[in-house]
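Why should sequence recovery work at all? Because a backbone constrains its sequence more than one might expect. Tight turns favour small or flexible residues, buried strands favour hydrophobic ones, and helices have their own preferences. The token representation captures these environments compactly. In the example below, the structure is given first.
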């Protein structure tokens, strides 16, 4: 599945998630755990939506889930940073995400950190364009 189709699928899954109905999104995360670009896209869409974040993290598992997700994102970003095709742009975004998004357990991107959202969106489009060209 190409990245453009994958992004559409993630957006579609995102619109149907409510309450405990998170199996399909969890399956996407598990299925794509070895694909760094898809991992970044999944984490981005998960963390950019407050309702989705609340649905995804159950109260009792909240901190543990967040730590696991942060570690998973960290590893994916490190792998992408090491890829010479992504260079300084990926490093800049990785540092922004790791320093700001996860500071003080803050998981919602879109209120105080619009710059991160814009940069992540640009990066996602860049990745998708690289795939198609």
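From this structural description, the recovered sequence reads:
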């Amino acid at each position: 599945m190409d990245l453009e189709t994958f992004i559409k699928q993630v957006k579609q899954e995102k619109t149907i998630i409510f309450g405990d109905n998170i199996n399909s999104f969890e399956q996407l995360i598990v299925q794509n755990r070895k694909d760094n670009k898809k991992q970044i896209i999944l984490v981005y869409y998960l963390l950019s939506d407050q309702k989705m974040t609340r649905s995804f993290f159950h109260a009792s598992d909240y901190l543990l889930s967040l730590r696991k997700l942060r570690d998973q994102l960290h590893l994916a970003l490190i792998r992408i940073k090491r890829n010479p095709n992504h260079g300084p742009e990926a490093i800049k975004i990785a540092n922004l995400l790791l320093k700001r998004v996860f500071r003080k357990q803050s998981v919602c991107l879109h209120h105080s950190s619009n710059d991160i959202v814009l940069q992540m969106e640009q990066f996602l489009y860049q990745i998708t364009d690289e795939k198609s060209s």
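A few observations help interpret the result. Residues 3-132 form one domain.
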